[in-house]
Design goal:
The structure is a single chain. By secondary structure, the protein is mainly alpha-helical. The chain has one domain. The chain has 5 helices and 3 strands; from the N terminus they run H-H-H-H-H-E-E-E. A 3-stranded antiparallel beta sheet has the order 1-2-3, with helices on one face. Strand 2 and strand 3 form a beta hairpin. Helix 1 packs antiparallel against helix 5 and helix 4 runs antiparallel to helix 5. The longest helix has 24 residues. It is globular, with a radius of gyration of 16 Å. The two termini are 12 Å apart.
């Protein structure tokens, strides 16, 4: 079993609440933006959980799993896609970027963070899941 990184700290109290509220705001802004670009809500429902397909990479180990998960759950990808979509006037792609951002915000609001390569449960927001007995 891999050790939890020594720099992994549990986020708690006001900071934890602030990060969750930040995720909720991201979700709300992205969904509102999606409505403003007249996105198809069926497409929203279909694509909303697509970033979670990155979980499959954990079947090949925690390092590869963390890389795939983090690539799909960082704001960098959807923001870059959104910028490119806006510059190229591609409303469908902009809608996909907003759905992706909404998903990231939803996960952050629930307390899920980016993963360390040690375990699915080791995140930048602290350890998630059940604690194992010592």
């Amino acid at each position: 079993m891999s050790a939890v990184p020594s720099d992994l700290h549990s986020v708690s109290g006001g900071v934890c609440r602030m990060l969750r509220v930040e995720g909720l705001v991201l979700l709300t802004v992205a969904a509102t933006g999606y409505a403003q670009v007249s996105g198809d809500w069926k497409l929203f429902a279909i694509l909303f959980l697509v970033p979670d397909l990155s979980f499959i990479a954990f079947l090949f180990g925690p390092r590869l799993g963390a890389i795939a998960y983090n690539a799909m759950h960082s704001t960098t990808g959807p923001l870059a896609l959104g910028l490119a979509s806006a510059l190229l006037a591609q409303p469908l792609t902009l809608g996909v970027a907003l759905i992706w951002l909404a998903h990231v915000g939803f996960d952050r609001a629930l307390g899920y963070g980016l993963k360390y390569a040690t375990s699915f449960n080791d995140t930048h927001l602290g350890r998630i899941g059940r604690r194992q007995a010592a």
